[in-house]
Amino acid sequence: MDTNVINNYSRLKATLFLLPLFLLAAIALFLYSQNALCVEGYIQIQKNSFFFINQHLGQFPSLQYNLTQFGDALVFLSFLSIFIVYAPKIWEALLSGSLVSLLFCSFLKKIFAIPRPPVVFDNESFTIVGKRLSGCTSLPSGHSITIFTILTVLLFSFLPQRLKYKTLWCLAILIMGLLFAFTRVGVGAHYPLDVIAGCILGYIFGLTGIFISRNYKIWGWIGNKKYYPVFILLFLACCILLVCRIINENLMIFYMAFVSLAISLYKIIYAYVKDKK
């Protein structure tokens, strides 16, 4: 599996960055044309779309709250923990992309300083699911960045070669990503453009993670079994964190993430013990 992932990465060109950069530029030009490059204008231009999306998605609060957890790296990466054993190259890209996204996301939130919907609108006028988020950290959506950073790595890791299957695979990833990302509007945490910008940035960061892992051997040790005890301890710590989440919120998605992580923990311990015999 790892060989196929490496071969897929080797085919990628830097021109893949052009489309997302064009889309970001198009959003900026649109906001400029609508005199919405200020905080007040940015919020007002999305007011109607925010309430519309929130009203319709908010009708399924439990589903929205479970799906929005995919924007939590602990949850999403738990489902992918098995690739430590079978395709460590994926994790090299995931780690690089995640670190880049973490750095830029924090920086951009401070730069734009857009107040979140619960700070601006009457909290009784729209649906808020889960914790009420306040502060001026709305743009971009960190959850959306995390979702698309991870999905972009998966997109190119398993990209089919035949055009028909490639198209279906890309559409499936895109639809899944947008479904997860727009839950941020559904739970009342972000405006639509926060999410769209986060998705585009996540794609860029995921692609950046792939290029870093392809050109530099920063994380080359991940596939070495002698370092498996590091991941065993890490997975155990993550299992404990997920148990705490289950106790506090009792969401189905946390149970699923815990089971995935427990299976990966068993697999990695088995592989490590077997290698020592």
UniProtKB/TrEMBL annotation:
<feature type="domain" description="Phosphatidic acid phosphatase type 2/haloperoxidase">
    <location>
        <begin position="93"/>
        <end position="210"/>
    </location>
</feature>
<feature type="transmembrane region" description="Helical">
    <location>
        <begin position="168"/>
        <end position="189"/>
    </location>
</feature>
<dbReference type="InterPro" id="IPR000326">
    <property type="entry name" value="PAP2/HPO"/>
</dbReference>
<feature type="transmembrane region" description="Helical">
    <location>
        <begin position="67"/>
        <end position="86"/>
    </location>
</feature>
<keyword id="KW-1133">Transmembrane helix</keyword>
<keyword id="KW-0472">Membrane</keyword>
<dbReference type="Pfam" id="PF01569">
    <property type="entry name" value="PAP2"/>
</dbReference>
<dbReference type="InterPro" id="IPR036938">
    <property type="entry name" value="PAP2/HPO_sf"/>
</dbReference>
<feature type="transmembrane region" description="Helical">
    <location>
        <begin position="228"/>
        <end position="248"/>
    </location>
</feature>
<feature type="transmembrane region" description="Helical">
    <location>
        <begin position="195"/>
        <end position="216"/>
    </location>
</feature>
<feature type="transmembrane region" description="Helical">
    <location>
        <begin position="254"/>
        <end position="273"/>
    </location>
</feature>
<feature type="transmembrane region" description="Helical">
    <location>
        <begin position="12"/>
        <end position="32"/>
    </location>
</feature>
<keyword id="KW-0812">Transmembrane</keyword>
<feature type="transmembrane region" description="Helical">
    <location>
        <begin position="141"/>
        <end position="159"/>
    </location>
</feature>
<protein>
    <submittedName>
        <fullName>Phosphatase PAP2 family protein</fullName>
    </submittedName>
</protein>
